[in-house]
Amino acid sequence: MRIHVKWMIAILILSNLLTFAIVKIYFPTTVHNNSFLLKMKGQGDHWKINDYEFVWISGHGAMGGSANITYLADPNDITGRIKVETYDYFKGEAAPHFGYSVPANRLDDDASFVTGGGGAYPPDDLSVRELVESTYFIIHWQTKDREQHQEKIHVELDYYPHILSQFHDIEF
136: phi > 0 → left, psi -120 to 50 → alpha, else beta; which? Predict the structure, then answer.
């Protein structure tokens, strides 16, 4: 009987070691997950940007869009088209990541409109902070006196502090 117990213990130990090795090799305990959703906002002298969302899904690229853009002055002073250029995650001078254009007469009752779309592959080594710091909008518009205007608006994270307080060791 003693021999059977020793063999059973040995087999149990070996099977546990084999199971541990298989799990460790094929199912690593650390997951490198770079997927995130950022919500950003910003305001200039003439325009306000709310709800700009930027989604990064690891291995699938990035999608930006869905910004709500509001004119802060009298919308009846604008004519022609309003052009919005979105710049994200570029280092140095670069072309806009996304462009959007809307006729001035299509502003809603709140002097707002919604942009959308985009898709790209930013460098994998960008942190959330670098992404936010490098994101800005340039808005072009014309007033009824035929003067061309342009405003550059930098964005910042739009979040509730009590949500981010739950994350430790993550730099935003």
Answer: beta
- Residue 143 confidence (pLDDT): 94
Is the pLDDT score of 65 beyond 70?
no
What whole-number distance in Å separates Cα of residue 29 and Cα of residue 6? 32
CA distance 108 to 4: 82
- pLDDT for 125 beyond 70: no
Handedness of CA 93, 121, 169, 136 (dihedral sign): positive
pLDDT at 31: 44
Q: Which two tokens stand for residue 159?
A: 């979040």
Residues 134 and 92: their CA atoms lie apart, in Å, by: 9
Tokens of 24: 């460790």
Beta strand extents in 1-154 (DSSP E only): 36-43, 47-57, 61-65, 68-71, 78-87, 98-103, 112-114, 136-143, 148-154
pLDDT in the model for residue 19: 82
pTM attached to this predicted model: 0.72
